[in-house]
Specification:
With 148 residues, the protein is of the alpha+beta class. The protein contains 3 helices and 6 strands, in the order E-E-E-H-E-E-H-H-E. Helix 1 packs across helix 2.
Length: 148
């Protein structure tokens, strides 16, 4: 943010487009156009479903954790750092918001076991600026990053 203006994080060039289709909403299935993804989706028990399938929050958690970990690896490599054994786990929560709709909250747990705490914190901050999921969610949903 410069002078109270949010940074423009929109892409200047689209390099890849993913395509997926939902059939039946939260109680159906999802497919990708290339056939790599075909999953049954179901409401989790906490939301009144049977849990007999994955759900959008799990898919979002998987995507965010993979993308954030890749951003960590990229900035770590640029800095010549060893990220052996590193992991990123994501928890995505869903609940009602004040506008009679629903909102999400994300907690990322980052493990960088071979780095000291100060270097790890700097690397996580850099990755949070690079990661497309971080850029897409910044200012829209609460994202907490836990380093441990």
């Amino acid at each position: 943010m410069i002078d109270g203006t949010a940074a423009d994080t929109r892409p200047t060039k689209i390099m890849y487009v993913a395509e997926a289709t939902a059939h039946g909403g939260r109680d159906g299935y999802v497919t990708s156009q290339d056939g790599q993804l075909e999953l049954k989706v179901a409401m989790p028990p906490a939301l009144g479903g049977d849990g007999d399938g994955t759900n959008p929050e799990q898919l979002f958690a998987a995507g965010f954790s993979a993308c954030f970990h890749n951003a960590l690896v990229m900035v770590g490599r640029r800095a010549g750092l060893d990220l052996s054994g590193s992991t990123v786990a994501a928890k995505v929560g869903i609940g009602p918001n004040k506008q009679r709709g629903y909102g999400l909250a994300v907690a990322l747990s980052v493990s960088l076991p071979v780095l000291d705490a100060e270097v790890a914190a700097r690397l996580v901050a850099e990755a949070h600026e690079v990661c497309p999921y971080s850029n897409a969610t910044r200012g829209n949903i609460e994202v907490t990053i836990l380093l441990g």
